[in-house]
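Work package 3, deliverable 3.1, input record:
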Amino acid sequence: MTRRERLTRKILGAATLCAAALPLSILIFMVVLARPLFSSFSVTDLLTGTWEPLQGRYGILPMMTASLLLALASLAVAFPVSLGCAGLIFGLAPPVVTVPLRRLVQLMTGFPTVVYGFVGVFVLVPAVRDLFQAGSGRCLLSALVPLSLMITPTMTLFFSDAFAAVPRPILLAATASGADPVQRFVWVVIPSARRGLAAGMVLSFGRAVGDTLIALMLAGNAARMPSGFLESSRTLTAHVALVIAADFQSLEFASIFVCGMVLYVLTSCAALCAWRMRAAAERYSG
Amino acid sequence: MKRGCWERAVRCGCYAAGFWVVSGAVAVVGFAVRQGAPHVTPKLLFGGVSAREALFGGAPVFDGLWPAVVGTFYLVAGAVALAAPLGLATGIYLAEFSRGRLKEVLTVFFDVLAGVPSVVVGLFGFSVSLLLHKMVSPRLGPCLLVAAFSLMILVLPYVIRATQSALEGVPQEVRITALSLGADPVQNLAWVLIPHSFRGIASGLLLAVGRCAEDTAVILLTGVVVTAGVPRSLLDPFEALPFYIYYVSTQYASPEELERGFGAALILLGVSVSLFAVAYAVRRAVGHWALYRA
């Protein structure tokens, strides 16, 4: 090994170390700044209590429920849509449809979230208000539609990749035994890509939980337990953005770092799950 | 007979899904264009001041988007200038110099970082600025520099991943040719591998630019304000397009402000979509011109 190679290696290694320290330091900052709250409340109090800062209660259960509800519902909407689109792209539609659809989906991954929220405020919110007589119209349902639309493109592309990774001999075998394209897609392609599909869903769940702007602009931001999709509610992410303006010494301020921790743990679990599933899928196909 | 029915239903379902996505995209773009296009004029950017005055004369713009456009530009430039060297170095290290267990662990680390919600990254940036405020100087607070640093964290995984997969995609015969002609590994990296994977890296950087330009949650927590004028230093608060759109949608004071909001939404949408389009085109284009350079 030459001197120059050793030097290059050292510099690159140092940069990698810096980059790898970032995810850890984010977690450490959250824990340290949330500490004032842990000394006066137990973890279960914080995670299962209600949010009444004036009465000295800093529980984040309502926000956690709203976040999970919104993310799971938008996943439930986006999953069949993405599966259908990925199916079209995989070959259930003629190339005249497939090629432009794929381009469009790729471009849609670039739509800014704030624009989804903006269009939602001026189109969807009045519509929901008139259709369901739902107060101001800012509710979980108004956030659900753009959120599911936002996660659909990345999910579709992920699913397309999973379908494209299905080994060709399996496809040929299915066709040779007389399956038409739809039968082949439903009974052969989807089952053999199931690990990839699961990984894509988990990642999209992470994205849906982590989105701030759509929920902040459209879900209404009332800090109470959501009891239906037409109720105004506040997600964890919106909560962080709303409370940041509070007094820096207060417990209220410390509580947003608990929210940050919960979000961090949720999304990193999602990333770890997706990674394990992908590793399993690679072993399976290779 | 029954079977034919069932298959037609699946096919129809797929087309319905495709239709839903297309109509969603059309609704978003259509609304932005219909409401925003009439207002995209020099007046939208510069308000009452003439363009020349604002660009070269340093005249302050009070009723236009110009300060927000400049703020976003500085922000993106700063974040990418920070993310590019670190991301490239890390990507190269992961692809070329790390093996086995270490590589696996590092990859998972960056997967986790890629999944961290932008509001959490913003919260981290905010707490860093609190720390600076306490430890270094009480004059420091949320500012352009902190926001650019936080955005760097947000886009770093994209740059790393793009660099790593571009390098790992270099075919074996290209990889060993220069080595067999007597180049050492560093020369091989600098003159063969990096030029060869130039397209992948460039498209990753473009995606990072797009992500920086559109993200709102991070800057919301790290120093963006409604009126600041064109930023004069890295330690000033700043304006930015995505935040302006958010602000208008929650509390606009006048119809003119609302019109500017529509214009801003159209501009931001246009910028992001064209950045993504260019990124995909760069990645897809054939012929490695960079290989034959120099």
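Chain A touches chain B through 87 residues (CB under 8 Å).
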